[in-house]
Amino acid sequence: MAIRREKPQSFRGSPLLIAIVVGILLGCVFAVLYPHGFFSSYPAIATARRTAESDLQAASSCESPERIRVLKSDIVSLTESNALLKKQARELNEKLQMAEQEKDHAQKQVLVLGKQQKAGPFGTVKSLRTNPAVLPDESVNPRLSKLLKEIAVQNEVVVALANSNVKEMLEVWFTNIKRVGIPNYLVVALDDHIVDFCKSNGVPVYKRDPDEGVDSIARTGGNHAVSGLKFRVLREFLQLGYSVLLSDIDIVFLQNPFHHLYRDCDVESMTDGHDNMTAYGFNDVFDEPAMGWARYAHTMRIWVYNSGFFYIRPTLPAIELLDRVAGRLSREPNSWDQAVFNEELYFPSHPGYEGLHAARRTMDYYMFMNSKVLFKTVRKDAKLKKLKPVIVHLNYHPDKFPRMKAVVEYYVNGKQDALEPFPDGSDW
Known about the structure:
The protein is an alpha/beta fold and 428 residues long. The chain contains 14 helices and twelve strands. The chain has helices at residues 2-33, 43-62, 65-102, 105-113, 142-151, 167-180, 192-200, 212-220, 223-239, 276-280, 316-331, 337-346, 371-376, 400-411, and strands spanning 156-162, 185-189, 205-207, 243-247, 251-253, 267-271, 282-287, 296-301, 305-312, 360-362, 368-370, 391-393. It has a seven-stranded mixed beta sheet with strand order 3-2-1-4-9-6-10, with helices on both faces. A three-stranded mixed beta sheet has the order 5-12-11. Helix 9 (223-239) packs antiparallel against helix 11 and helix 11 (316-331) packs across helix 12. The longest helix has 38 residues, at 65-102. The chain is elongated, with a radius of gyration of 41 Å. This is Glycosyltransferase. It is found in: Golgi apparatus membrane. InterPro entries: Nucl-diP-sugar_transferase, Nucleotide-diphossugar_trans, RRA1/2/3. GO terms for molecular function: glycosyltransferase activity. Its EC number is 2.4.2.-.
């Protein structure tokens, strides 16, 4: 009975074992015949992939150095083209933003400066003369910002640029500033010799960080070349929120100029004019006889502002003026900074040109006196000789240093004949 019970169990286990063996054998066969699966829907793709991979391996192993060099060159070219396209896209985006900013500019300006209002009765309407100051940005130049906090008075400072070529005149300049008692002044030194000279005389001095575009002119430039640099240098002062009274070195200070400013315009400048007409403007009639009845044409004339002595406030129009002048001087190396300064201030908007919207004031030419007024008019008039100007600018004469000393002798030391040896004009 025991033997009979074991046989059925052995018989039932044998078919199961046979099924397992058959399954393994079939699996091996299918694995060889269908490596990507028996139920794959894309045998062609699989075959193509295998073919491509084998071709790529063959190509990689057989690729010539020349072909590799060409491929690398193509990659570099495509990279450069991509960078160029990105740059063009960025520039177009910037232009779009500028166009959007300029849209309805007048309306936006009204919203910024104040609410719209109705006009008052006849004779009572006054336009806005004083533009708001910019928000100071100390990140522009932290070192200069720290210095100006120590020197400036009510965010105002006298600034002069100097290199070693004007060392003698510079000494006369700061000696009289000290004598008058002006505490808020600063010399922007254009070379190391001036830095040492100022420090040895207790004069506040500042030297900019290296800038080849400025330094090359600063080292060897003459009066006009150095004068043109101020428009680039002054920008940082205005961005920091300071009003600047820019002074050339050929100026003698006789009073504190900050006591005689109006501060109601973007730019307040001394004039090269020598009387009321030339200083403040006049109607000049142009005669053209060939026109018959219409032979007379009225024109407006005014002598230029002197770019060697002006007060400039930290406003957007003032900063735009500096940018315009500096830009033109860099593009037009033979141009004179004073001519460009006045053209940008006065030329109106017209087709193809957008004029500068800056408010300007002409200084009293007897108080802020040029050397033509002094030597041609004042010294010969008994009443005018008693007048004490705020400053005298020796701008009309090339023999600046001896005339500066004569001005000091006359106005400071009381030597009545100190101005007599000099001609009205110059012998040059």
